[in-house]
Structure formats: C-alpha cells, structure tokens
Amino acid sequence: MILLAGACSFPAATVDLKEAQKLFLAGDYTACISRTQGALTNGTEGEEWHLLLSRALLATGRYPEALVSITNALEENRWSVRVLWQAREVFQANGQTEAAERLLRRTRQTVMSQPRAFRDPASMVVFGQALLLTGEDPKRVLEMLYDTAKKEDPGLRDVYLASGGLALEKHDFALAAQRFEEGLKKLPDDPDLEYGLAQAYAPSEPDLMAAAVEAALARNTNHTPSLLLLADRSIDAEDFADATNFLDRVQAVNPWSPDAWALRAVLAHLQNQPDAERAARETALKFWPMNPRVDHLIGRKLSQNYRFTEGAAHQRQALAFDPDYLPAKAQLAQDLLRLGEEVEGWRLAAEVQKQDAYDVEAYNLVNLRATMSKFSALTNQDFIVRMSRPEAAVYGTRVLELLEQARSTLCAKYGIEVKRPTIVEVFSSQKDFAVRTFGMPGNPGYLGVCFGSVVTANSPAAHPGNPVNWEAVLWHEFCHVVTLQRTENKMPRWLSEGISVYEERQANPAWGEHLTPRYREMILGDDLHPVSKLSAAFLAPPSAAHLQFAYYESSLVVEFLVQQFGLEQLKGALWDLGQGMEINQALEKHTEPMARLESAFTAFARSRALHLAPGLDFEKPAFVSTNRLAALALDDADSAAWRSWAKDRPTNYWVMTRQAEEFVKMKEWTKATNVLQRLADLYPDSTGADSAYRLLALSLRELSQTNEERRVLAHLAEKDDTAIDAYRRLMELSAVARDWAAVALNARRYLAVDPLVPLPYRFLAQAAEETSEAPTAIRAYRALLELDPPDPAQVHFDLARILHRGGDPEAKRQVLQALEEAPRYRAALQLLLEIDAPLPQTKTDGPNVTVGLGQ
C-alpha cells in the first residue's frame, strides 16, 4: 500500500512542481514561495523544491530566509552539486563570502571525486560554472561541458543561461545572442532567456534590445533584471524620472536589490545629492558589505556619464573589496585611459588580458597598445598628438596648428584655461578608433569622441568614400574639451553636442549641421524633442538621420539661447552645472521657466524651418514616401500619378529637382540649367549630394560656360565643407585663370577633407610659388614626397629649387635625390652645378672676405 501510495503521489508532486515553476517564471513570487513552502512542510522531497524556494526568496530580497532555507536544503541534499551551487549564491547574498568560497571548492571536489555520478546535464552545467571561477579555460568548459549538456538535454534552460552568460562576460555578444536565441526556440516563454538576449543586443542593436526586454516583461511584469536594464538605459538618456519609476517597480518586488540601490546612488550623484547617494550605497551593501559589484556598477554608470574620476574611484573601492574582481579592473583600465593616466591604464588592461585570455575587450586593448606603440607623437606645451607615422609626416603639423587655433579661440570665448595638455589620438583604422574609444570594434557612425582631456578621432583614411571634414571634427572635439572642463564633466549630452556643433558653424559657416529639407520636415512634424528631454534623442534614434537631427536640434537650441539670452547666460549655466546644479534648473536660472523656454524654442525652430527657401513649396505627394524623389524611383503607374500631381506645382522643391534630373539624364543641358538656376536662386543655401549647384555646375560645364560654372562652384564651396569634386574643379579653373588666391583657398579646403592625396598639394605648391610664399610651397612639396608621387624626381627638383633660392643647404640633398630618381634630368644637373659653383668674392679696403650669396 505504501508503495502504491508513493507511486500515485509522484505524478501529483511533479505537476505541483511545474505549476510552482510557472508561478516563478511569471513573476508571482509570493504565490511561488507559498506553494513551495507548503510542499516542503508537507514532506515533499526533491532538490528542485529547495532550489525553487531559494530562488524565489532571493528574487524578493528575503536573503536571511533564503539562507535558512538553503541551509536546510544542504542537510537534506548533501551530494547535490546544484544545491551546493545555489547555496553559494545565497551565502554571498548574505555577505558570508568565506562560506561561499568553501562551497565553491566543495562543489568542484564533489564532482571530481565521483565524476561518473555527476554526468547528468544539470550537474555538468554547475560543474562548468565552478570550474570557470577557479580558472579553467572557458573554451574547454563551453565545448566539453555546456555543449555536451545541451546535446543530452536540449530543453535544459540552465545550459543556455550559462553559455550565453559566459559569452556576455567575455564580451562576445554575437555568440551570446546565438545561445539565447537557441534557448528561446526550445523555451519560448522564458523571461530570463529574453533578458539575456536583450543584454547581447544592448551594445549595438537598441531596437532588438528593446523588443527582447518587452518580451521578457510581457512574460513576467516583475522581472527585475529587465526593469534594471530599462532603468540603466533611462539614466543614459538623462531621463531620471523614468529611471526612478523603473527602480520603484524593482523595489516593489525586491526592496533590498543591491543593483537597484546602486543605480539610486548613481541618480543621486548625477543630481548632486551626496547624502542620498551615500545612503543608497550603504543600503546596497546592507546584506553583503563587501560586494564588489555595487561599486563596480556605480562607477561604470558614472563613467558612462563622463564622470571618469569618480567612476575610477568606485572601481578602486570594488577592487579593495575583491582584488580579483575582473570587471572592476577592466573598467578601471578604461577609465584611466580616458583620463590620460596611460601607464597604469595600459598595465591594468594587460593584467586583465593575462588573467582572462578570452575577454575580447581586454584582448582588443592589448593589441591596440602594440599598434599605438608605433605612432608618432607631435607635442607642444598644450597638446600631445598621436598619429600613424606616415600620416603625421603628411599633415601632423596642420593638426597641431588647427588645435592651437581652436584652443586660442574657444578658451578665450568660454573663459577657461585648460590646465593640462590635451591628448589627441588620430586613428587611420576605424576598428582601432572604436577599440580605443569603446573597447570593442563597431560604432561606425562616430567621427571623434572627447573624454575631457583625451580626444580620439578617425583620420580621413578610416572612412574611404565617405568624405568628412577632419578639421571640423577636431574643432568640434576640442570644444568638448573646453565645455567638459568648464563643467567638470557635469553636462548633459545634448548641451555638450549642441555647443560643439554651434561652435563649428561660428568658426566656419560651411562646418556643422545645417537646416535641410529633411530637417525642415522633421521640425514641422513630430520629431522635435522637448529641450528637457533632448538627451534621449541620442540614445536609441530610429535611424541615422534621426541621430544627425539630434545634433542639429541641439545646436539650434544653443543658437536660440545665445540669440535670446546672450552668451554670458549660457556660460553662467555651464558654471552652475560645474557646481552640481541640474540642467533644467541651470537653464531656468539663466533664461526663463522651462515650459516657456520650450514653447519659445519650438516657435523659433518652426520659424527657422518655414523660412528655409520660402519661395519653394516643400509638400511631398502622399504616394511617395522616399526623402528624395528621383525619376528612376517611380514605376510607370507612379509616374502618371506624379505627372498629375506635379502639373500645378511649378515651385515645388521635389518637382523641380526631379524635372532637373530628368533633363540631365536626357542631356538637355539648357533646359536643365534653366530649372536648376531657378532652384538655386530660390534655395541658395542648398548643399550636400542633393544640392542644385552640383547639377547646375555640370550643366554649365557641358554648355562650355566656364565662367558661370566657376561662379556656381565657388558658391557651393563656400557652403559645403566636403565638396571635394567642387574644390578640385575650382583649382583647375582658377589655375587657368591664374587666380592663385582661389587655387590656394580650394587646395586648403580639399586638404581639410582629404590630406592623403597628392593633387591638392601640387596646386598649393604652384599657387605658393606664384605668390612668393616659399614656406607654404616647401611644406606642400614635403607632404607630396611623403605620398609617394609618380614623379618624385620632379618634386625633389622643385623643392631643391625653392630651398636653393632661400639659401638652404638642404637644396643639394634634394637635387641629388632628384638625380638618383632620374640620372639624366638636365634641369637637376644644371641646378647641382649652380649649387656647387664657387662663391663669388668681393674685394674690400680691409682684409679679403668671402661673402656667400644670401648671407
């Protein structure tokens, strides 16, 4: 009878366990605890009940109760490695780290003493986790334990959580996403797997991350890891109210969550509430007073908000708690490198890589260090510029000159003295730039980043086929140096970017973001962000265009503030930010209440948009959703609809643009010129790939109207800072016209976009020689030689000729190099004879004195 009763009760217990597990996954932790405690009180046996109860108690912050529960479980399940492993987590949560360490060793020893007894997939996963914490090779664990366990039990959630978590820990986000996606195919309703997937997508796929978090919370509205991730992202968006709401939701489930209290400490710090910050950190450490994760998390978030000094201090505290806590050591390495404390930063990065050969971020940094050791360093009292040696030889001097000009202009304007030399690192590889800046390859949209006294930037070689004005980029980044130091790194992203873009336009009207038809549409539509929430526009923009618009809108806010309230008020707000005042309070103090400010700015922005080419109609047909209406983009049916729509809109921007493109395609140059000239007259500030001036110049060239072509190109060159095709043509036309000032101007414009090609140096040298500017010509010829020109003998000869004219003895070496390249170069031979000719003598009334020419 007992046997029969036992046989009958087993399926019922199994059913009850599954129901309790469903309650846990759904976030009904209270009901789950009640169900499991009831089952255990009634004598139900099995490690699964103890594990589930322990997890539910931890999820609700009932750490002491979890300790009692798991202690009881250890007595009943002495040989269960899963209970041992769960007990380790519970003991840690209660601050009993030595006991947790003993449990780690016991877990490993238990399996190793009887390996055949622990060949079940769940035990293999636990054994793998224990081995990792004792220094075992992660790849061996993944392949020999996790993959074997997955093969034997494809439905085991623990194996996907463990393998995906391992990949996340090593910053292998692609592998992590793969593992969590595999798990979700087997267990589609698991919120922990959805959360893991969100973590894998977080660094590069914000939309996919958001979808995964949404899926996790749809399955479990109390899923605290997902809520913490949303709070984390809200802090990045400087939306402190949303962050607080998410943390409130976390603490309604677990009032003692260390991560939640750590994030509250971050919020308090960012809002200049030191007492609240201190109290939140102390609460985070209530049950585990030496938990290194708390300070690591606080420091990481502060560093993500550019508080690198404070962030580094928290990482040092985390390492004081646990010297082997690698996440803190890795973050400290990054913080120190961003602070310019390079010796210790590189040393720590090497230590992390040595301790964990599979950490992708550390591996990348160590390899980058080897690359950067070959860089040239150009220095003066204000800057340390590091570049690849070939690029430094070509335009490194110009980099220093531009930075000095930016420093002189911006420091005086904002009333700040930069106290230490600024480090500027220019990378010819976008991957190297990304590793130095973010720790990982990727982020191709960034041109430069400033950390305060350290600037990283892509060189023109890093983005072939995508012209960027590197001079504008460096001006922009040095403006960040000024404003970040002015505010002690305590400024929102939108204001920092807004001032930098605004100052680009002040330095050169062609630089920076400008109003375009697309931006006009976004301003007049629903894409304008409130000033008080503008930083959120940078966090997860729907498209690259929306991100660029965030930069433009931010600069427009700054322009509005300066026009309406004056630069001194803006500087006053920056000063108050440095003293710890919150941004909206600082703006209100120096302008007007935020509601009125936002209303006034919206009116300002809409007015600016409506005054973009007011003689043009920018309405778009409802049946075309593309931004630019090219003729070939429409099929026959659309073309008929288009013709009908366009017939009564002769001044419509899209109609005129498409009409002009059709004329150009058909090579009807006169008709194209007529439309394009009218379009240019109505929209004189048109720039970029869609500018009417580009096609107008082409049409005029085809009509042999060279003077008009040159006039149109000159207008475009004044407005567009990347129009290298226009600069090239203007150099050619201006040289024919012997307008050497125009040749030099457009050569310099070209070099500000691409200093790594010979053409502009040739024109610049020629213009400089024609205007007797020998130093400029010499620099241009020297740069040309660094670029391996096809006719080096000619360049050496031209350089020798100018040097000889100035009495420079280097002339002989240059002419000999010309002859080395071309031994029969008659002009070079003649110049060598002239250089070697004996110096003429002049007789005087006194002793004979030999006077050399040019002395």
Could you characterize what this model shows?
By secondary structure, the protein is mainly alpha-helical. Among the domains are: 1-110, Serine Threonine Protein Phosphatase 5, Tetratricopeptide repeat (Alpha Horseshoe); 223-282, Serine Threonine Protein Phosphatase 5, Tetratricopeptide repeat; 523-612, no CATH class; 631-836, Serine Threonine Protein Phosphatase 5, Tetratricopeptide repeat. The chain is 67% helix and 3% strand. The chain contains 42 helices and 7 strands. The protein has a 5-stranded mixed beta sheet with strand order 1-2-3-5-4. A two-stranded antiparallel sheet has the order 6-7. α22 links the parallel β2 and β3. α10 runs antiparallel to α11 and α22 crosses α39 (774-786). It is globular, with a radius of gyration of 34 Å.
CATH class of the domain at 631-836: Mainly Alpha
CATH fold description of the domain at 631-836: Serine Threonine Protein Phosphatase 5, Tetratricopeptide repeat
Number of helices: 42
- Helix-strand makeup class: mainly alpha
CATH architecture of the domain at 631-836: Alpha Horseshoe
Average pLDDT taken over every residue:
91
Radius of gyration: 34 Å
Distance from N terminus to C terminus (CA atoms, Å) equals: 123 Å
Helix content: 55-70%
Largest sheet: 5 strands, mixed
Q: What is the strand content?
A: under 5%
Tell me the strand order in the biggest sheet: 1-2-3-5-4
Shape: globular
Q: Mind telling me the CATH superfamily name of the domain at 631-836?
A: Tetratricopeptide repeat domain
Number of strands: 7
Low-confidence stretches: 1-11, 627-633, 846-855
Looking at the chains present, what oligomeric state does this protein adopt? single chain
